[in-house]
Amino acid sequence: MTADENGTSVYLHYKTPIKAAQLSVGAWGMNSAARNRQDNRLSSSHSHSASNSINPALNYRFTGDIAMGGAFAELSVPIQNIKWTLRGEFAQQVSDGTLSDTTQASLIESTTQGARFESTLSFQKHQMLLASERLVLENVFAGDVGTAFVDSAGLMNNGFEPSRHSAAWNYRYLPGLYLRGEIIQERVYSEEKTQRYSVGLRWNQQWLF
Question: How much is the average pLDDT of 78-94?
Answer without folding.
Answer: 95
